Here is the input.
Amino acid sequence: MRFLLPIAFLTLLSLLNAKPVNANDKQRPDLGAEVILLIASTVGLSRDELNRSFSVISDFQSRKFALSELESLSDEEVLAKVNLKAEPYANIETEHLMLIAKRYEIETELLAARADVDAEKFRQFYRTFDSTLTLALRLNRYVSAKQNSVSKTNYSNHASGSYFADVDFDGPIIDCWLSCDAVKDQVWEDLSVQLTLVGDIQDSAKQKGSYPEGTVARIVDHESGNFIEVRKQPYSLPWVPVNGG
Here is the structure.
């Protein structure tokens, strides 16, 4: 189940590109595509800008192309581009997290240019892309289950509210530390917040060993019971939130 995200890119993109249908036609509601369209319009993307952004991000995450301009930069060259007085760098305490933040910033700018979309609008869409797509797939999965008359016993309300059902989760459990406030409040869109998630996972990896690409980990705040699920990816920001519960 956890590898459905890349597979679903082309399906959702075809729905976003689809022409309007006759109002009398009976179509299965595609709430997933509507969620993506809503998020895109919220950050100011037009339909064409959304399609270009979606294509570039999905191709990049599917490794159809690489960002050679970014890969060729040494850590020293990246750090030289950091403005220590600007956010989020002013509040980053470790050089390693500062490198992650700057590489991610450069990555975002290069992808925005490739998509021919305003960098600020693209940044907002890109930062929430994985969690948005997870929500879209979760809604479509729920609608499909309802239409196929799946019983409440087999498809509980709790399971329908989580893309990764609790009974299926077998990834590493990580205690929150830097990210406890974010986990409690279920907010993770801000880059500085995402960096706290990365910091907690790095601390865990030092004790338990590194996690392979594709790993889905759950960062848990045991006081509130809230958690955030993050997936490891081979990009500048190595862990991205995909779900909260």
About this structure: The longest strand covers residues 227-232.
